[in-house]
Amino acid sequence: MDKILLTPGPINTSFFLKKHISEFPDMSHREKRFKDLLLGVKDKLKEVYPCKEELEVAVLNGSGTTALEAMTRSFGRNKRNLVIINGVYGNRIYNILRDEITLKLFSVTAHEHWYTHDELVMKIRDYILDVDNVFVIHHETTIGVLNDINFIAKFVRDSKPSCRIFADCTSSFGVEEIDWENLDGICFSSNKCLESIPGVGVVMYKKNLIPTMDSSGELTNLRKYLKHAIPFTPNTLSIWALDFVLNHLKAIGGVKFRKQTYDFRMNILRKIKLDYIVPKEYNSSSLTTFVAGFSVQEYEKYMYDNDYVIYNMNNGMTDCFRLSVMGNIQTLDLEKFVELTKTFISEQDRYLHDVVSFR
After folding, report:
1. 125 lies in which domain range?
2. DSSP string for 113-177
3. pLDDT-based confidence at 122, cuts 50/70/90?
4. pTM for this one?
């Protein structure tokens, strides 16, 4: 029996995707039908968030981090870079750039994990004239904060038209709003909110940036993927699956419908009467973090025994836990999860009451 994964990737995939995968025909990446498949996937990716300018799409073997490294190294090397950090994944961008040859590297760190729009503007303003690029995480799944990349990109463009902005959309592509008007490039993966299997990382960027790209490295060198090149043996199965979920996303009504679905699911989870780390207005549509007030390890085991997998924290916040609604999750399963949580909390409260009474 499959566990129900309330985690931000990998996620539960649908019966229909599993069936499609079972029908995968072995194919060489050098034959025409695969090249046609790949070109079709690239075109469909462009349709998810249409852009007035011409886009280049690189499909890489690997995870969202592979795509992030490709985007960050190709555009950040030998540049002056600013990284907006409000979690583990913003730190990941900073660490990638720190290991590269960068002219200057700055960071804006949100110690409380998020900024209001006005606070963010004031922080960026201190650096904007001194940098060539701004890098930001769209959905920072460390705690579920959603950075308004459209607002940030417009501010950056208005403040310094020559400055480029790149966003890691690994946990937002397919569900959150992304406007290409002031963005220069984004990266993401095949699973998460696209609801496919892992194995493919994607970088999309405006074609006018090609002359500025660095050309070092192998797997993460975006120049090697130009002109529909396939420089390395690709993950043909994951690309086959990605094509299927892109067709499905379009058939159900696109990003708008998926966002409504995820918002509906999140409202079910909010029936759990615990405090949230992130205020609702700064929270994403697919993940939130609760303050436990009980043993998270015991809760995690209790849920696992009841066929639910939850995400423990990866930033030292041991008294909190994350819940995600990405993937093929049924309403009844979420409602059952909420009831199980209420039962667990009630049992914990009863235990504490008995301990206090005994003392």
Report:
1. 15-251
2. S---HHHHHHHHHTTGGG-SEEEEESEETTTTEE--HHHHHHHHHHH-TT-EEEEE-TTTTTTS-
3. confident
4. 0.94
If you count them, how many residues does the chain have? Answer: 359
Q: How far apart are CA 137 and CA 231, in angstroms?
A: 28
Do 292 and 320 contact (CB within 8 A), yes or no?
Answer: yes
On whether both 245 and 259 belong to a single domain, the answer is: no
At a CB cut-off of 8 Å and minimum separation 6, what does 149 contact?
A: 136, 138, 165, 167, 169, 178, 183
- Going by C-alpha positions, the residue among 201, 122, 204, 202 that lies closest to residue 166 is 204
Distance of CA 53 to the CA centre of its chain: 24
Q: Give the residue among 106, 185, 105, 99 at the shortest CA–CA distance from 138.
A: 185
- Give me the mean pLDDT over the 114-120 stretch: 74
Quickly state the pLDDT bin for 113 (edges 50, 70, 90).
low
In the chain, where do the E strands start and end? 4-6, 55-61, 80-85, 104-109, 133-137, 139-140, 145-146, 164-168, 185-189, 200-206, 287-291, 308-310, 320-324
d(CA 114, CA 137): 12
* Residue 143: CATH number of its domain: 3.40.640.10
Pick from 230, 251, 272: which residue ends a domain?
A: 251
Cβ-contact 186, 176 below 8 angstroms? no
Q: Which of 205, 231, 251 is the last residue of a domain?
A: 251
Residue 162, token pair as written in the block: 């020559």
Per-residue tokens: 326: 């990405």
Looking at residue 308, its pLDDT comes to 98
Tell me how many domains the chain contains: 2
